Fold these 3 entries.
Entry 1:
Amino acid sequence: MHIEELREIVRLLKDEGLSEITVSEGDSTITVRQTIGHPSPIAAATPAVTAPAAPPPPDGLTIEAPLVGTFFRRATPEDAPFVELGQTVRVGDTVGIIEAMKVMNEIKAEKAGRVRAVLAEDGAPVEYGQALFVLDPL
C-alpha cells in the first residue's frame, strides 16, 4: 500500500467520523483506528494480517519488484515471455510487467546476466522488493 492510499484512508476516517476502518488488498489487510485524544490516526495504524515471509532468493543477482501489483512475464497472453531461463539480459532489457492501478509498468534489468531462475508466476500478485528473477552475473 502506498503512502497516498494510506493518507486517503485516514481522510475518509476523519471525514466520515469513523473510529476504525479496515482495508484489504490482496493478501494484505490494514486497520486504522482513531482514538480520542490522539491527533493522528496514522500513529494508531497497525497491520491486522501480515503476509507470510517469502523464502530468501537463491544466490546471484536479483531483479526485484519496484512496486506492488500483478506481475506478468509477457505483454499479452499470446506473446512469448520477455525472458526465458538461460537467456542473457542486458541493462535496460524489459524482463516483465507489473500492473498497478490499471497502469502497466515495464520492469527493466538494472544488471546484466543470464536468467538462472524465475521466482514470480505469470499473473501472480507481487510485493514491493519481492525477488522476481535471479541472474548469474556475466
Entry 2:
Amino acid sequence: MEFEKNDDIVVGRVKAITERLSHLQEVGLYFYNQPVTELRGGARVLMNGRDMGMYASYSYLGLIGHPRINKAAKDAIDRYGTGTHGVRMLAGTLDLHRELEETIAEFKGTEAAVTYTSGYVTNLTVVSSLLGRGGYVVSDKLNHASIVDGCLMSGAKFLRFRHNDMKDLESRLKNIPKDATKLVIADAVFSMDGDVIDFPNIVELSKKYGAWLMIDEAHSVGVLGETGRGIEEHFGMEGTIDIKMGTLSKTIPSVGGYIAGKKDLIDFLSHASRAYIFSAALPPAQTAAAKEAFRVILDEPWRIEKLRANTNQFINGLKERGFDTMETSTAIVPVLCGADERAFALTRAAQEHDIFVLPVVSPAVPPGLARLRATVTAAHETDEIQYAMNVIEAAGKEIGII
C-alpha cells in the first residue's frame, strides 16, 4: 500500500510537468532546449537554419571559440587523448589538473584551489562536506539551487535571510549559539536578477559573528573587478572571502567548478569531499581550455571594458524605453514582464525577429515576476544591441508591457 502512495506522488509530479510542456508546445510557446547548430563569433548563433543574435549566453567575455583556447584544447587531446583513467585520487590526476588549479589560485589570490566536474556539484559537495549536524548555514533567499541543495544535504540547521537584507542576516546570526560552526553563503551576482550582494556588509557581519564566508562567483568572474578577478577586486577588499567558489563554464568557456582558499581547506576537500573522491577527472581538453582562458582574460583587458560598455548600453537603453530591469547592474538583465503569458509572448516576438532570448517563469521566479533573462557579452557590437532593444521595445508595446 505504501508503494502505491509513493507511486501516486511520482505519477502526479510527472503528469503535472508533462501536461504543462504539452500545452506550451501545442500553442507554440515552448522555447527551451533548442539545438544550436553553429556558434558564430560569440554573439550570434545558427539555430533552426536562422542566424540569430544570442542574448542568453553565459560567455560574458565572448571567449567561446577564442583561437588560443581552442588550440590549447586541441593540443591537450593530441597529448593526453579525450579522457583520463578515472577519479583524481587514484589514476585520474594529470599534470594539467595541477596546473589549472595553480592558475586559479593565482588568479583568485589564494594559497590553493581544487576543481570539480561541474559548478552544481561544487556547491553541493563543498557545503555538505564542511558542515553537519550541529552546524548552521545561513543562505540568501535567492541563492542558486546548487547552494540550497548543498545546505539541505549537509544536515546542518538551514537558515535563510531575505534577499540582500543585511539586517535580516544579522538577526539570523544573533540567534545562533556562539560556539556553533557557522557558514554564511551567497551568490556574488544573482543569476535571475543580475544584482550584486552587499559585499562589504556581509563580510563585516561574518567576521562579527565568527562565521565562515563562502561566495559563489559563477557570474562575477570576468564581470566584476578591474581585471575581472571578481567581487573582492570590485570592492577593493581582497582576501576577505574564506571559500571562493566559481565555475569553469560561463566566462571560462569550458566545464567544471572550483574552490579557492587556504591550503588546509583545499587539502581537506581533496580528501573528504565525495565529488572529488568518487567523480571522474575533468577531461584533458576542457582542463587545458580553462587554464588558457584565465590567461586570456589577463592578456586582453579590453574585453572587460567592452562588456561594461555593452552592459550600460543595454540596461540604460531598456530603462529609457520604459522597461523594468529590476536592480541589475551586471550583464544579466531581467526584462520584467509580469504574467508568465507575457514573458512567453515577448520571447516569441523577439525570436521571430532573430533575437534569441529566453523567458524565466514560475516556479523559477515568484508568480507575477516572469521576465526575459537577457544577457549581453563583450562580443556584441553597439548596433547589434541597438537592434535587439528596438525589437524588444516594439514587442513590449504590442503586448502591453510598456
Entry 3:
Amino acid sequence: MYNDSSDGKEFLGAGIAFPFRLDAGAIAMNSYEDHVRQSILLILQTAKGERVMRPEFGAGLHNLIFEPVDPVTTARAKHEVEEALIRFEPRIDVLEVEVTVDPKEQYKLLINIQYRVRRTDTIFNLVYPFYLERGEL
C-alpha cells in the first residue's frame, strides 16, 4: 500500500496517525504529505524537555502560555516555530511563519505556516491555534 515508488513519495514516509486513533477497528495510518503535516503538528505540540532522550526536541511554545498578548510574544512564537521546523523537519522548506492574534478570541494566537514539501515541490498552509491561557482548547 505504501510501497509505490513510481512518484518518489516514499521518502516522505508513512506510519501511525497522530494523534493515535482507530479507523474502522484498525490503527489509523497516514502517508506522504499527511505524514509530514502530522510531524509538523507533533513538533509544535511538544514542549522542550518533554522527550527524555531528546530534550531539545519541540517548538517550546508551552513556555509562552502565561505571557501577555503583545508584539514580543508573537515575535517569540514566530521565532520558536521557525527554528524548530528548520531543525526537526528536514523534508520541508519553511516559506513563511506569521503569528497573529485571533480577532474573536484575544488569548488565541493563530500561527500560519506556509511550507513546501521538498520531494514533491508542493506548497501547503497550516494554521495552528495556540492559546495563551492554560486550559482552553
